[in-house]
Amino acid sequence: MRERPDRLGRILTALSNGSEAWTAARLCQTCPEIAGVTGAGVMLMSGDVQRGSVSASDEVSHLVEDLQYMLGEGPCVDAYRQDRVIAEPDLADPSTPRWLAFTPPALRAGVRAVFGFPLQVGTVRLGALNLYRDRPGPLNADQHADTLVLAGVAARWVLETQAGAAPGAVAGELEAGADFHFTVHNAAGIISVQEDISVAEALIRLRAFAFTSDRALTDVARDVIARRLRLG
Amino acid sequence: MTMTRESEVVRSLVEMADTLVDDYDLIDLLTGLADRCVNLLDVSAAGVMLASPAGSLGLAASSSEAMRLLELFELQSQEGPCLDAFRTGEPTGHEDLLAQSGRWPSFAAAALAAGFRSASALPLRLREVTIGALNLLSVTRTPMDEADVIVARAFADLAALSVIQHRASMQAHRLNEQLSAALTGRVVIEQAKGVISERAGITLAEAFIRLRAYARNRNLRFTDVAQAAVDGTLDPQAWGAPPGRLS
Prior knowledge:
The complex is a heterodimer. By secondary structure, chain A is of the alpha+beta class. Chain A has two domains: about 5-170, 2-Layer Sandwich (Beta-Lactamase); about 180-225. Chain A contains ten helices and five strands. Chain A has helices at about 5-15, 25-35, 60-70, 75-80, 105-110, 140-165, 170-175, 180-195, 200-210, 215-225; strands spanning about 40-45, 50-55, 85-90, 115-120, 125-135. A five-stranded antiparallel β-sheet of chain A has the order 2-1-5-4-3, with helices on both faces. In chain A, a hairpin with a 2-residue loop joins strand 4 and strand 5 (about 125-135). Chain A is globular, with a radius of gyration of 18 Å. Chain A starts with a helix and ends in a 7-residue tail after the last helix. Chain B is α+β, with helices and mostly antiparallel strands. Chain B folds into two domains: about 5-170, GAF domain (Beta-Lactamase, 2-Layer Sandwich), CATH 3.30.450.40; about 175-240, Winged helix-like DNA-binding domain superfamily/Winged helix DNA-binding domain (Arc Repressor Mutant, subunit A, Orthogonal Bundle), CATH 1.10.10.10. Chain B is elongated and about 90 Å long. The chains are: A alpha+beta, B alpha+beta. Chains A and B meet through helix 6 and helix 8 of A and helix 6 of B.
């Protein structure tokens, strides 16, 4: 095991590569190199509510987050709820059978290993850092320890960025590149009127429809908004 | 220091460090610290003062009512061991309150009247930042032995650490709640746009304009109007075309 100062130095050097300001996007792009994975994403959650993705390094990472948002299960959701690191080094042959809805589409997208690291500052929990790899295998001890540091950096970045926001607003830097699924909420509002149900129930129906028709939640939401699709 | 006392001290430090991991009440922790000073060190009373963000000291915890009153007196007269330790960031050293040419004449008089005979104070300090002080009073004139001084130092350092960590944690909680509330507000507005778009047969963009205009005209909070739209309790006028406008 390397010494901690060396580890921190290495991570900070990677993050501050060049002179550009480092952001969640920069952090997600650094993860593959630091943790030996294919892609990474940062998901925000509060209470039982999944807020969405602050950043994702590639399309597959984005899908991994979207699936978890749609299905309410997966490594990030577990990492956040259970307040610990969740590792599935072989999604095709998992040691723990779980995520029955999440696993098939994730495998089809080429995900073979997934890891969720809680985002926390002290006792404050913010979400999770999501890693995936296109081949199976665990993180080694160094990669695991480095990712813990990265998750801590990401959590502090979220809070420090929000500290600069106007009262009642989400910080602009936090929203740039984020996907808080506002389209899905537009569609839920529309469905709640069409079907005379609560918005919460409309969200459930929207998710169920997307899952059973094997479509991306955002695509279904767009069709509802364009009035090309009516649920019920 | 006897073995039993040493193990008591270690146990106290471990217990206090443990409380830092989870959510904890700062005043409970500091009161516990003051009590431990009395139980484990050769002192009769202990008190903790903390600086406000503006930099003035205030009472945080005391091992007894007599101590609390004496510390209040110290604050009012702006003279005494806590204030010196806080101002200089250094331990005051032991002071015999009956000594002539004492450093704190009015404090000494009040402390003697309360039955104390000697006093000292340690700064609560983390590196260059002093955030308060630990006051230690004794009914005898004997100074603490060297082992006691080391333990007192450790208690003061741990107290400083817990206060700083607690403040950082409060700040993190506050920011997280703000972020959560802001995101909830945004989500409700997006849902309300969908609701009004469907009710009025208009685009999402137009729904947003009407909701915002309605909130502004009635001097209502936008998120409250949006929440009412989502709950189905919003006045239908809110999404009707504005009077005088061709639709």
